[in-house]
Amino acid sequence: MGSIWRRSQAKTKWKALKKMLMMKRIVMVLWVSLLCSCSKDEAEMVVEADLVPSFVLVGLDTESVYQYNYDGLEDSGETFNLSQELGMGPNYLTLRQEGEQLSFYTFSDGAFSLYQKNVLTGAINKYVDFYENTDARSIVWGTNDMASVYFGYYSPRGSRNLALYTLDLAVMQGEDTSLEFNIQELYQPLYEDGRLYITYQNGSGTFKLIIYDTVVGRVLQNLDYGSARPSIFITDNGNLAIIKLRPNGVMELEVRAAETLAVVADQVLNLNQVFLPGPLNAQLVENKLYYEFEFAQPFRLTKGPAIYDLSNDENTVLDIEFILNQVTSETGGSYDVISSVYNSDSDAFLLAYRALDNQDGLEGGVLAITSTGQLLKRVPLPFFPTYFLE
Length: 390
Hints:
- There is one protein chain.
- By secondary structure, the chain is an alpha+beta fold.
- It has a domain at about 135-280: 7 Propeller (Methylamine Dehydrogenase, Chain H), CATH 2.130.10.
- The chain has four helices and 30 strands.
- Strands 12, 13, 14, 15 and 16 form a five-stranded antiparallel beta sheet that branches. A five-stranded mixed beta sheet has the order 20-19-18-17-21, with no helix packed on it. A four-stranded antiparallel beta sheet has the order 3-2-1-30.
- Helix 1 packs antiparallel against helix 2 (about 40-50).
- The longest helix is centred in the first third of the chain and has 34 residues, at about 1-35.
- It is globular.
- The two termini are about 25 Å apart.
């Protein structure tokens, strides 16, 4: 029961912090609006300025990994050198997030190491060489909650027999669970609130999605999607969303209730996009799908933020090229957007960019833009952003 409490408590504290920051911003706007005798234009300018979202990100350069905390209200940031704090280099394998905890996986000399930091308290955990790689398990990916690590692997090495290894970090004891024999492909996992979502393609080419309950240690369901490729994410109210891409190009959105996994919505999407199986960088908020649109090539950009309105099938792709040209005219630099995430608290997108005219290409920053495509703020950084904390 203790590990269940730690998992829920971590996510609750992280959500509470984000809500507290948002309330602080709302109170400040009301305070300024009441105290300052300004014109309508000035009042609108105050409200617009407050829309700049606060965020926490991870980035890197050739030497180190960094954490950067930005306060949108104060327009100030603080940088932490995670390589110095954790004792690891920039060449980590995987970064996972559970609530306020960051987990970095590395591999060296035949063993995996795990480095963790709580971004709220600053607490650090290190599990150096905690798992030695052997022929018994060919590890494909690792993820974790606050108490355990979960390895998806093939067993034995050289086979395609899919299994899951659960390792309790407190006692360093593990348990294996066989999932399916002779599969074709295993995709990245998605962990959320005690459930592990595992997407794969079995030996006959069928796409499947396992929902594994990490609290009781068993498979809840193994969903069969046939030839439709499932891309998955968690909605704003905690439900499971699956975007199914059929071979004929038809795309459907299926939503399943968080607790029962019963289908509560199923809708055809009029989207000419190709999403990869497994976790998808998307959010479903108030009947709108916020996602990354992939542009047909050749084009200056590979992808950018977009909004699909499920109520009228209207798809809006934000004009990021215009914003980049605007920034270039102000700075004289050249930039490329690498990734974007939607910040529902501020109804804004955060875009990670890199400076193309930088010698090593590892300087960059963040562009904050409204959901209507207006530039709110550019935050330049001496390193390259790779991940926004959710």
